[in-house]
Amino acid sequence: MLKHFLKIMGRYLRPYRKYLAGAVLLNFFSQWMNVFSFVVLIPILNILFKIDQTVYTYQEWTWDTLSKDVVVNNGYAFVQQLISEHGAFLTLVIMGVALVLMTGIKTFGYFASSAVMVPLRTGVVRDIRTQLYDKVLRLPLSFFSEERKGDIIARMSADVQCVETAVMSSVDMMIRQPIAIVVCFVTLFTVSWQLTLFVFIVAPLAGWVMGKVSRKLKSQSASVQSRWGDIIAHLDETLGGLRIIKAFIAEKKMSQRFYEKNNEYRREMTEMVVRQNAAHPMSEFLGTAIIVVVLWFGGWLILNGTNLIDASTFIFYMVILYSVINPLKDLSKASYQIPHGLASMDRIDFILKADNPIKELTKPEELHSFEKDVELRDVSFHYQEGRDVLKHINLTIPKGKTIALVGQSGSGKSTLVDLIPRYHDVSSGQILIDGKDVKNVGIRNLRSLIGNVNQEAILFNDTFYNNITFGVENATMEQVIEAARIANAHDFIMESENGYDTMIGDRGGRLSGGQRQRISIARAILKNPPILILDEATSALDTESERLVQEALERLMKSRTTIAIAHRLSTIKNADEIFVLYEGEIVERGGHDELIAKNGYYKRLYDMQQL
Q1: Are both 143 and 252 inside the same structural domain?
Q2: What DSSP state is assigned to residue 428?
């Protein structure tokens, strides 16, 4: 676990090294002040209980003669001098003030070390979120078709939150408490190495018990986070399909499913939290057991008259030993929290380390304009090995021409057009634009030449203006209005309450299907791409909306190279060439009249639509 924790910290702590160094220094300072404040207790106890009657004389000290005995002797000599000059009570007051001052300095050091760690903790979590979001933007569309969207959202929200609360909140603990333990044990060795050796013999037993209990926590945590992902996925499906749920009176069925998933999450969460909550009482019990065993051993040494340690020093030793218990308890608490966070980090790494098959060359070829043609040369493609979706596709689209792709659902039309902007890469063959393989061209460069209008208009919960200008830098208001006019969208935009500044709702929910599509067309017009892909852009519209959208599309297609996917064959009669796909292969090609005359697959499709 510790190795995994340090490996993850190594990935993210580099930019925050100065905060880490500051925390280490402040913690060392605070811990030594803690020890020195307890040292003051020894003369206080001697004064109160008159334990030590020895008369101490000041010894000269140099670097050569400096030792623990000289320091202790001179400390006692100083206290005796204070008592002789000012009396025992005033000396007690002075020593008490010294104890308060050192404790104040110690607690300020603790506060400062925690404050220094805050930018580190929040910064690392911010970096993880940013990395996740950037990776989601870079991953291919195929990744999201294979994974549940709700589970990905859970990994980006709940799992990141868990890393913040379980791992990052423990970083301060993982710095402070080991330093506290080291400082305390150095002090204990200095006071009595014999007693400390005895502690080292007894303590590992307690550590073994704690480790035994916490070992299973990481796998439990991973299971809990997976259950939470199931809940989020179910919630996402419910919100997306609410209309169907109500239409088929399936509320009870969906509620039962949610109850079962929620109950599973509760059961596993209960087991994990019970195990976590066992950390504090178990460490409290084991720590007290160690203290008692050491107390027995030290008491035996003193009562039998050995000279290994005197009574007041033994009390100081026990105070320092008890000071080790709290850091050990905190570490045991961290040992339960951290596996929970590491399990979430593993789920986050599933996204961060996901392979992106869409590779870009270090020095890609330039392609700033489109001059000649788009060619698909013997292109095949599969999502799963051995199951080709497209088979040996050969077609050429000259500049300025319009081609149409038709065929039954599942014939590979949408997959084919997705290969051109490299949403997927071909399994074999080549896609060439002006003779350049799209794999050798920069992705940003390539996609800047292509505009998309899809069957489902994908809009954002923003204003008309921001949706139309999406992805287009420095567009003027005049250009936006002109694009909207061409797309037959200007009139209904101006009829809205705030014109172009009107919010359109989640996914354009405040608009009709035809209005959403016209905003999508306006966005494509403003981008002004030389290559245009229309993926069944009018198939989901009523007759009036289709007429308005079709007019907008015809304006958009002027002087552009267009690839149109269509179910309604009447919309692509005027295409320069029509390619008929069946089960991933081009079975017919030609103009509308030519294909009708062939009396083949296209003719059957056309006749069915006429009926």
Answers
A1: yes
A2: E
**336 and 417: one domain?**
no
* Residues 272 and 416 occupy one common structural domain: no
Helix (H, G, I), strand (E, B) or coil at 301: helix
Residue pointed to by tokens 């623990």: 68
Sign of CA dihedral 235, 240, 246, 247: negative
Count of residues making up the chain: 611
Structure tokens of 192? 């009595």
As for how many domains the chain has, the answer is 3
Residue 562 resides in a domain: no
SS3 (DSSP) at 256: helix
Q: At 273, which amino acid appears? A: V
My answer on whether 442 and 509 are in the same domain is no
Identify the CATH number of the domain in which residue 485 sits. Answer: 3.40.50.300
pTM for the complete prediction?
A: 0.72
> How confident is the model at residue 85, as a pLDDT?
79
Considering the domain architecture, whether residues 229 and 127 belong to the same structural domain is answered as yes
Q: Are residues 221 and 138 in the same domain?
A: yes
211 part of a folded domain: yes
Task: Kindly give the pairing relationship between strand 531-535 and strand 450-453.
Answer: parallel
Place of tokens 């009709």: 512
Q: Give pLDDT, residue 433.
A: 92
Dihedral, 528, 533, 535, 540 alpha carbons, nearest 10: 30
Cα distance between residue 357 and residue 564, in whole Å? 27
Q: Please indicate, yes or no, whether residues 332 and 478 belong to a single structural domain of this protein.
A: no
Distance in angstroms (rounded) separating the CA atoms of residues 82 and 92:
10
Owner of token pair 């026990």: 318
300 shares its domain with 420:
no
Query: So what's the pLDDT on residue 464?
Result: 92
**417 domain-assigned:** yes
pLDDT, tens only, 547-572: 777 777 777 777 788 898 877 776 77
pLDDT of residue 529: 87
Question: Of 498, 528, 558, which residue constitutes the final position of a domain?
Answer: 528
Q: What is the pLDDT of residue 106?
A: 82
User: What value, to the nearest 5°, has the Cα angle with vertex 219 and ends 217 and 224?
Assistant: 90
* Residue 336 confidence (pLDDT): 66
Q: Are 309 and 20 in contact (CB under 8 A)?
A: no
Beta carbons of 441 and 375 less than 8 angstroms apart: no
Instruction: Give the H/E segment covering residue 106.
Output: helix 88-138
- Residue 378 has a pLDDT of 93
Low-confidence ranges of the chain (pLDDT < 70): 1-2, 40-56, 62-69, 71-72, 205-222, 243, 276, 278-280, 283, 305-307, 312, 329, 332-333, 335-336, 537-546, 570, 610-611
128 vs 41, 92, 116, 124, 455, CA distance in Å? 47, 54, 20, 6, 35
Domain range for 32: 2-352
pLDDT attached to residue 57:
74
**Cα distance between residue 221 and residue 269, in whole Å:** 8
- What residues does 532 pair with on adjacent strands? 451, 562
Q: What pLDDT, on the 0 to 100 scale, is given for residue 310? A: 72
- Looking at the domain assignment, is residue 249 inside a domain? yes
Is residue 431 helix, strand or coil? strand
Q: What is the pLDDT of residues 32-80, one digit of tens each?
A: 887 777 776 666 666 555 655 666 677 777 666 666 667 667 777 777 7
Q: What is the CATH number of the domain that holds 298?
A: 1.20.1560.10
